[in-house]
Amino acid sequence: MKPVASIDEVLVALKESFRADAIGDLEATYQIELSGDSGGVFWARVFEGELSCEEGTTPTPDVFFELEAQDFYDVLAARANPELLHMEGRIRVEGSLSLALKLRVMFLSGEPR
Predict the structure, then answer these.
(1) Whole-model pTM?
(2) Is 98 helix (H, G, I), strand (E, B) or coil?
(3) What whole-number distance in Å separates Cα of residue 32 and Cα of residue 99?
(4) What residues form DSSP beta bridges with 3?
(5) 29 - beta bridge partners?
(6) What is the spatial distance between Cα 58 and Cα 36, in angstroms, rounded to a whole number?
(7) For 103-112, what is each residue's pLDDT tens digit?
(8) What is the rounded CA–CA span in Å between residue 37 and residue 33?
(9) C-alpha span between 111 and 90 (Å, rounded)
């Protein structure tokens, strides 16, 4: 995932790097709250192999994330391990942990950037 400076850029980058081939029949809605520089609130929904995401909140997320914006970008770019960040208390997750772990797979190219 390329560096971003705003939530609008995050949404564009997520849509550009989405890997439908990596998710199978996954259906899930994620609420993500990013703090710090380039932070903000947005949701992402995967349904029938398609990704939709918008700035703001969704009433019924399957998974809720709260973390620093830079940590989020580092996870998606394979520069950080989300399990380690969670153990360090740097990511707050509510909801299904198995769905939470699938979020990263949807966007990874397999190579750290």
Answers:
(1) 0.86
(2) helix
(3) 13
(4) none
(5) 45
(6) 21
(7) 888 886 544 4
(8) 12
(9) 23
Q: Which two tokens stand for residue 70?
A: 């830079």
Write down the residue that tokens 């208390």 correspond to: 89
How do residues 69-99 score in pLDDT, each as one tens digit?
Answer: 989 888 877 888 888 999 999 999 999 988 9
Tokens representing 57 are 């909140």
CA distance 47 to 4: 25
CA distances in angstroms from 42 to 10, 25, 58, 111, listed in the order given: 9, 23, 8, 25
- Say how far apart CA 68 and CA 59 lie, in whole Å: 22
**Phi and psi, residue 21, nearest 5°:** -65, -20
- Report all structural domains of the chain as residue ranges with CATH numbers, in order of start: 7-105 (3.30.1050.10)
Q: What is the Cα–Cα distance from 65 to 100, expressed in whole angstroms? A: 8
